[in-house]
UniProtKB/TrEMBL annotation:
Segments forming domain Aspartate/glutamate/uridylate kinase: 1-280
Protein name, entry field: Aspartokinase
Uppermost EC category: transferase
Entry similarity comment: Belongs to the aspartokinase family.
Organism whose genome encodes this protein: Billgrantia sulfidoxydans
Catalytic activity: L-aspartate + ATP = 4-phospho-L-aspartate + ADP
Length: 434
């Protein structure tokens, strides 16, 4: 049966990292093996900066500097890996950079989301070209496939919706039964008209799930720079612990609330076919992993803490001293959807409807401008939202000590409080229950 591996940007950030993943693939001898790969390191961030320069008047010099630096980074990796070998994909990579340059010029007046997808996808196309060439250079028979031709979507750029039937036909028709390593890109897809689309930031996990679902895979393995899933970000919580088992439902809840280990859309396609997802460390591959499957009895063993920073609190009030009733709430949430935003916390009272939102200026300002035409708006920036799944008694009070909670929400399994970021510690500690 098929296995799907997914490698993120950290696992292929440079030549040494690419070398390091080779034995992980070589050791897995069952075929077909589908390997889904992200852009190298922070390439997507650099491509976003390049995009901003391409769309700005008078930024040609800045654009050219960004472009050449990005090209040099990839050439450095190829030189370390291949030297003067004929196996080097330098010519193909340069052709991809030429395509990228041309598309920036072609789309600079296009809507931002469309321009974004036509150009940012080149991070994955270039990285997989290098990795495929390296695996073949090492004697691992590998076929490179363009995900834009396999993952079929609509034209909702930056958050494309999957055409499952067309995607399944394309993937099964091209990949089923292969006796080689199948290397393709995460994060990207394509429309029926041949335009590139993206599945949302960090969407490579979702890509792996798409391939697994369509090929009835035995397992998805996500290789990361940590040993598995933790009950909090180990960089922010000094006593975070690894979670060995988690259900699809609980992992989806954590992703929905902002945990950054698994993309929120990943678990649905796997749960439907009972395909387990394993998170392993590419640095210590023999360490005990974390497994996500249908088993729910381990979900509440440890409280899970999630921080969402750079939050904005938007209070919406009617101008006519009327109730904030269902029709008005429906109107506000409709505008939220039109702006492409997600509410991380919602609070309401008789004459107030409030939303905690990610600080995404282009989308947020669109929403604020729309609401201000019909409502009074109060706004506060620079906030941090703390979410705790399965909190123990007294936990939220201990975590809140010394800081004012601007908003709070709680149900049977989840508690949330919103704080000013300036009041929050750099390092948090998960308390024992009182």
């Amino acid at each position: 049966m098929t296995t799907v591996f997914k490698f993120g940007g950290a696992s292929i950030k440079d030549a040494d990292a690419i070398r390091h993943l080779t034995p992980l693939i070589e050791k897995h001898t069952d075929r077909p093996l589908v390997v889904v790969v992200s852009a190298m390191g922070k390439t997507t961030n650099k491509l976003e900066a390049l995009l901003a320069a391409a769309r700005s008047e008078g930024k040609e010099e800045a654009y050219r500097e960004c472009f050449e630096a990005l090209q040099a980074d990839h050439h450095e990796a190829m030189e370390v890996l291949f030297g003067d070998s004929r196996d080097s994909p330098a010519e193909r990579v340069d052709a991809l950079f030429d395509e990228l340059d041309a598309l920036h010029r072609k789309h600079r007046a296009s809507p931002y989301a469309r321009h974004y997808d036509q150009t940012v996808c080149y991070g994955e196309l270039i990285s997989t070209t290098i990795v495929a060439a390296w695996l073949n250079h090492c004697g691992i028979a590998t076929d490179w496939h363009d995900a834009r031709e396999l993952v079929r979507t609509d034209a909702c750029h930056q958050a494309a919706n999957l055409d499952w039937a067309a995607t399944a036909d394309a993937i099964r028709g091209r990949l089923r039964g292969s006796e080689r390593v199948i290397l393709t890109q995460g994060f990207i897809g394509g429309t029926e008209q041949g335009e590139a689309t993206t599945l949302g930031r960090e969407g490579s996990d979702f890509s792996a799930a798409i391939f697994a679902h369509c090929l009835d895979a035995r397992e998805v393995v996500i290789w990361k720079d940590v040993t598995g899933l933790f009950n909090a970000d180990p960089r922010r919580f000094d006593n975070a612990i690894q979670l060995e088992r988690l259900s699809y439902a609980e992992a989806t809840e954590l992703a929905w609330h902002g945990a950054k280990v698994i993309h929120p859309k990943t678990l649905g396609p796997l749960q439907e076919k009972s395909i387990p997802l394993t998170v392993r460390s590419f640095e210590t591959p023999d360490a005990a992993p974390s497994v996500i499957d249908a088993e729910r009895r381990f979900d509440a063993e440890a409280p899970c803490c999630i921080l969402r920073e750079e939050q904005v609190w938007v209070e919406v009030l009617p101008r006519d001293f009327a109730f904030m009733d269902e029709p008005r709430q429906h109107d506000i949430l409709g505008r939220l959807v039109e702006a492409g935003l997600h509410a991380n916390l919602v609070d309401s009272s008789a004459m107030r409807f409030a939303l905690c939102l990610d600080d995404k200026p282009e989308r947020l300002e669109q929403l604020i401008d729309s609401l201000e035409a019909d409502y009074e708006i109060n706004r506060e920036d620079g906030l941090t939202l703390l979410t705790v799944r399965h909190p123990r008694p007294g936990m939220m009070d201990i975590l809140s000590e010394g800081r004012e909670a601007l908003a709070e929400r709680r149900n049977a399994t989840t508690a949330q409080r919103l704080f000013r970021s300036s009041d929050c510690p750099e390092t948090w500690h998960i308390p024992e229950s009182r």
